[in-house]
């Protein structure tokens, strides 16, 4: 980039001082005079409020919620989004579930809501996995894998319990990729169930494409999601998916895979995993269908083109 193309502002706004933060943010916007303001999730809502009387075009992106809003929207946040985002902003959402929340709960004008599904570099996941990965997994048999931050809303305890049920029917092992505050609890749970020798906790990996191809199926146990990138990566890697019906997952996977996106119970998830473990041909068909859909629908090139049109002002009428 040419000198001066990047300008990083570290504002360090204090928490619980919203009015002063909004005033300070508006002052920065006046000084910088950007062509476009892009805010991201609730943590940036003060900047959106600073542009309530517009100084520039504004796009607000929301891609999901923390555990405090896993089951219901916090009323004051819904009201504030309605007040701030309903005048001149465009609100970009990557999932149909978020579109529903924005229009029905936040009560945003559908004309202000733009659905832009997430995209990934599908080509990264086309190559076979590193052959050393599978040999490093504990236990034997087919490999159920997941990639997640180990937080409460991912409900990985449900996955471990479902794995115990599925393992009683098929020789298999579980690989959990990721780290987070729930790790010690989950490791203790695996030990209490006598599954430590069959479950591998890898910790965080910065190149998921190196390990996904070593899985035989991908599993998600979350209580709340919107449009998880881990599902897109698993699809691009050519994996069948067993998942709880969180967010847009049922719409994301190939049509053939939808029967294995199930209610949020241990029994339902265990049955979906066991059915896939027991049918090689089915796993292959779902894997091929998921990869084909990832390439045609969720490649990052499609997403980049849409964002480019929005930010340049050349996009057509919003999809609400």
List the helices and strands and how they pair.
Layout: H1 18-32, E1 36-40, H2 45-50, E2 57-61, H3 75-85, E3 90-93, H4 96-105, E4 113-115, H5 131-135, E5 142-147, H6 156-167, E6 172-177, H7 183-192, E7 199-203, H8 209-212, E8 217-220, H9 229-236, E9 241-244, H10 249-252, E10 261-262, H11 266-277, H12 280-297, H13 300-312
Parallel strand pairs: 1-2, 2-3, 3-4, 5-6, 5-8, 6-7, 8-9, 9-10
Helix pairs in contact: 6-11, 9-12
Structural class: alpha/beta
| Main beta-sheet annotation | 6 strands, parallel
Tell me roughly what share of residues is in helical segments: 40-55%
The fraction of residues in strands falls at: 5-15%
Strand order of the largest sheet: 7-6-5-8-9-10
Count of distinct strands: 10
Q: What spatial form do the alpha-carbon principal axes imply?
A: elongated
Low-confidence stretches: 316-320
User: Any idea how many domains?
Assistant: 2
Helix tally? 13
First-residue to last-residue Cα separation:
35 Å
What's the architecture of the largest domain, going by CATH? 3-Layer(aba) Sandwich
Computed over alpha carbons, the radius of gyration is 22 Å
Q: What series of H and E elements makes up the topology?
A: HEHEHEHEHEHEHEHEHEHEHHH
| Name of the CATH first level of the largest domain | Alpha Beta
CATH-defined superfamily of the largest domain: Glycogen Phosphorylase B
CATH topology of the largest domain: Rossmann fold
* Overall pLDDT: 91
